[in-house]
Automatic annotation (TrEMBL):
InterPro entries: NTF2-like_dom_sf, YchJ-like, YchJ-like_M. It comes from the Bacteria. SUPFAM superfamilies: NTF2-like. This is UPF0225 protein GCM10009126_20250. Belongs to the UPF0225 family. Residues 33-129 form the YchJ-like middle NTF2-like domain.
Amino acid sequence: MKSIDTMTPCPCGNEAGYAGCCGPLHEGKPAGSAEQLMRSRYSAYVLLREDYLLATWHADTRPASLRLSAQQPAPTWLGLDIRQHHVIDDDHATVEFVARYRLGGGRAQRQHETSRFVRENGRWFYRDGEIKA
């Protein structure tokens, strides 16, 4: 797990800082929306918070592990752009996003995805996603 200066902009792009954005969610505060959970999950990838990623992944689709620390070359995350947050009903939502990253010294790449989220017992969970070409 990487450390972060709590006064710098949050890895998700919020200039309020990690302590006022994704930090409290990483420590157990429930996300208020699917978009907020998406942002905190992006930050968790940046910070190698595999524990958080697995805890916020719905049990029906959650992998046993992600092996983030074993990724070679490790991605360097460059930024997150939330394109759309669509609330379907009180307990279902989608978030379309583009996450930019670089592997090793290679060219920047993009992951464009529409993710599906579900809320159970007052907590949002990532269910699955559809990668866009």
